[in-house]
Design goal:
- The protein has 202 residues and is of the alpha/beta class.
- The protein has a domain at 14-147: Nucleotidyltransferase, domain 5.
- It contains 8 helices and 5 strands, in the order E-E-H-E-H-H-E-E-H-H-H-H-H.
- A hairpin with an 8-residue loop joins strand 1 (14-20) and strand 2 (29-35).
Length: 202
C-alpha cells in the first residue's frame, strides 16, 4: 500500500477524517470520514491532491462501495465567515464523523488539530498520504467539493469556478474585480473583503 501506515488496517472501526477547501475564496469547507473494511483493501489510496481527477473519481466510487461506513460534513460560507476557516473546518470534520453509521471506535484526523468531541482520536500530520482511511476521506471530500464548484460555475458564470475551484488564482481575482462578489464568496477573506462597500466606508 505504498508508504501508507497500516494502523487503520489492523484496527477495525477506525475512521479517517480529512477536509478540503480551507484556502479557496468561495464555497463551503467539505469534510469526509471513512471507516475502511480491512477485508476489502483499496489499492492506490493516497493524498487526493496527488491523483488525477479521473483516478479520484474511480477511487471515490470504490470507497463508497467497499467501506464499512462513510459520511460527509460541511461548514457553510456563513459559518466560515463567523467562526474563521480553521474552526469551520474542525466543525465540518466533527459533523462528518458524527454522521457515520456505525460510529467509529477511534478517529485519525489529518493535520495537527482535533475537533472538540468525545471520540478517542489522534492527529496525524501528513496523514492523507500515510494513512489509508485518511487518504480515503481526502478523496471523498475533494471529489464532493470539486463537483460543488462545478455547480457554482454554472450558477455564477464568468468566475471560472470549475477550473480554479475557488482558489485565489489570477483568473479568479480578475473576475472578482470585474464582476463583483457573489453570495458564494467568503467575505472574511482579504481579497473578497476589500471589494465590499462596507470596508470602503470604514
Amino acid at each position: 500500500m505504498n508508504d501508507l501506515l497500516a494502523i487503520d488496517v489492523d484496527a477495525p472501526g477506525v475512521a479517517g477524517v480529512d477536509e478540503v477547501g480551507r484556502g479557496p475564496l468561495a464555497g463551503d469547507v467539505v469534510a469526509a470520514a471513512v471507516i475502511l473494511d480491512p477485508a476489502l483493501p483499496i489499492p492506490g489510496l493516497r493524498d487526493s491532491k496527488k491523483l488525477s481527477p479521473r483516478r479520484r473519481e474511480a477511487l471515490a466510487q470504490q470507497i463508497r462501495d467497499h467501506s464499512v461506513a462513510w459520511a460527509l460534513g460541511r461548514a457553510s460560507v456563513a459559518e466560515i465567515d463567523t467562526l474563521n476557516v480553521l474552526q469551520a473546518s474542525l466543525l465540518a470534520m466533527r459533523r462528518a464523523v458524527e454522521a457515520l453509521d456505525p460510529q467509529p471506535v477511534s478517529v485519525l484526523v489529518d493535520g495537527n488539530r482535533l475537533p472538540v468531541w468525545s471520540y478517542r482520536a489522534d492527529a496525524v500530520i501528513g496523514g492523507d498520504d500515510r494513512v489509508a482511511c485518511i487518504a480515503a476521506a481526502s478523496i471523498l471530500a475533494k471529489v464532493q467539493r470539486d463537483a460543488e464548484l462545478v455547480e457554482l460555475d454554472q450558477r455564477y458564470p464568468g468566475y471560472g469556478f470549475a477550473s480554479h475551484k475557488g482558489y485565489p488564482t489570477a483568473q479568479h481575482l480578475q473576475a472578482l474585480q470585474r464582476l463583483g462578489v457573489t453570495p458564494a464568496h467568503r467575505r472574511s477573506f482579504a481579497p473578497v473583503k476589500k471589494l465590499l462597500p462596507e470596508t470602503h466606508q470604514g
